[in-house]
């Protein structure tokens, strides 16, 4: 196995020794539990499962390991009414998903530079980000969200979590605790399938490139609201300081599945290195355009109950919330984000369709 590692802006280098293991294989630990694929491409929902039981049963490691593989293969997995899963258990589950699927020992749970205990409505635990519509309206009113402006496009909402960190996320768990009367759905899209939509020459071209991932909006929000970004180590020793910028591949390999996906998608991506500003913007806009024009690589999840829960793999999917519930109540959730490995591209890895033998339509 050879891997591409980013050494400088616009450059790649081949490492000569294997760094990453072979893709993980399911062992059937979850076969006894009823589940269904929400779409052919992305999403699976388990029925009548209590995740607290999975965390405490004697074969817990086998269950959580197979759950991690399932999440990485399906992109996002859903569970309803996890009333017994408190914040500590949610954090434990997030960390064990990464550990049992092989993440580095130094990678723990992420501490968000903004959404932490230092904010009003931020809770008391830095390793749990409170996802709050009320808080968002306070902090991001002049940066990400202008709630008084007429909206004609929501495409800028698509992203993967914290890709501006040198060591970004593998798995994330969101549990909604307060729901509006209706609305507030979350959508996910498959980075595997997005990669498969490209022609082979385009695949090879983007595989040769790195991108700069950055989020200046957080610094702007901090300045506007009179607070400092969390600059101490944010769950990994590499994730430190207030300069929220990193260099990662445009195309990365998910180490759990061995499948390639487009990583450079969403509002944390600033520039594809080596391209002109205009070329980079066209490419990044095109990636998002492919998502919004191909609803068959998306899944839309309706949150039905308090403590409904979603777990996704940030290495291979993107997501966006739906801000359609103004006047229908607030939307609040608890998110735990596990940190994985530094993104890399294994030049010998395959696409999802190649690995599964799926023919192009």
TrEMBL record:
<keyword id="KW-0560">Oxidoreductase</keyword>
<protein>
    <recommendedName>
        <fullName>TauD/TfdA-like domain-containing protein</fullName>
    </recommendedName>
</protein>
<dbReference type="InterPro" id="IPR042098">
    <property type="entry name" value="TauD-like_sf"/>
</dbReference>
<dbReference type="Pfam" id="PF02668">
    <property type="entry name" value="TauD"/>
</dbReference>
<dbReference type="InterPro" id="IPR051323">
    <property type="entry name" value="AtsK-like"/>
</dbReference>
<feature type="domain" description="TauD/TfdA-like">
    <location>
        <begin position="36"/>
        <end position="335"/>
    </location>
</feature>
<dbReference type="InterPro" id="IPR003819">
    <property type="entry name" value="TauD/TfdA-like"/>
</dbReference>
<dbReference type="GO" id="GO:0046872">
    <property type="term" value="F:metal ion binding"/>
</dbReference>
<dbReference type="GO" id="GO:0005737">
    <property type="term" value="C:cytoplasm"/>
</dbReference>
<keyword id="KW-0479">Metal-binding</keyword>
<comment type="similarity">
    <text>Belongs to the TfdA dioxygenase family.</text>
</comment>
<keyword id="KW-0408">Iron</keyword>
<feature type="region of interest" description="Disordered">
    <location>
        <begin position="339"/>
        <end position="361"/>
    </location>
</feature>
<dbReference type="GO" id="GO:0016706">
    <property type="term" value="F:2-oxoglutarate-dependent dioxygenase activity"/>
</dbReference>
<keyword id="KW-0223">Dioxygenase</keyword>
């Amino acid at each position: 196995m050879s891997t591409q590692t980013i050494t400088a802006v616009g450059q790649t280098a081949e490492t000569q020794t294997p760094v990453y293991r072979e893709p993980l294989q399911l062992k059937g630990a979850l076969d006894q539990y009823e589940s269904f694929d929400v779409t052919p491409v992305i999403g699976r929902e388990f029925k009548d499962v209590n995740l607290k039981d999975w965390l405490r049963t004697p074969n817990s490691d086998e269950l959580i390991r197979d759950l991690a593989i399932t999440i990485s293969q399906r992109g996002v997995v859903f569970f309803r009414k996890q009333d017994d899963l408190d914040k500590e258990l949610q954090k434990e589950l997030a960390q064990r998903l990464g550990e049992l699927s092989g993440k580095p020992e130094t990678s723990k749970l992420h501490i968000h530079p903004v959404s932490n205990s230092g904010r009003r409505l931020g809770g008391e635990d830095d390793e749990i980000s409170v996802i709050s519509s009320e808080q968002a309206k306070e902090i991001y009113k002049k940066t990400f969200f202008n709630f008084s402006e007429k909206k004609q496009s929501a495409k800028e909402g698509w992203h993967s979590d914290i890709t501006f960190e040198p060591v970004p996320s593998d798995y994330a768990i969101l549990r909604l605790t307060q729901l509006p009367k209706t609305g507030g759905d979350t959508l996910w899209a498959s980075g595997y399938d997005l990669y498969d939509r490209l022609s082979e020459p385009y695949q090879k071209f983007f595989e040769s490139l790195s991108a700069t991932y950055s989020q200046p909006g957080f610094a702007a929000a901090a300045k506007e609201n009179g607070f400092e970004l969390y600059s101490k180590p944010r769950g990994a020793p590499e994730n430190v300081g207030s300069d929220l910028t990193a260099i990662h591949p445009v195309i990365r390999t998910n180490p759990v599945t061995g499948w390639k996906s487009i990583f450079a998608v969403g509002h944390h991506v600033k520039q594809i290195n080596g391209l002109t500003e205009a070329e980079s913007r066209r490419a990044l806009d095109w990636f998002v355009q492919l998502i919004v024009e191909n609803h068959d690589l998306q899944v839309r999840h309706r949150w039905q109950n308090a403590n409904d829960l979603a777990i996704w793999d940030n290495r291979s999917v993107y997501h966006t919330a739906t801000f359609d519930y103004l006047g229908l109540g607030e939307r609040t959730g608890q998110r735990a984000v596990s940190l994985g490995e530094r993104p890399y591209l294994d030049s010998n890895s395959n696409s999802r369709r190649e690995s599964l033998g799926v023919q192009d339509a």
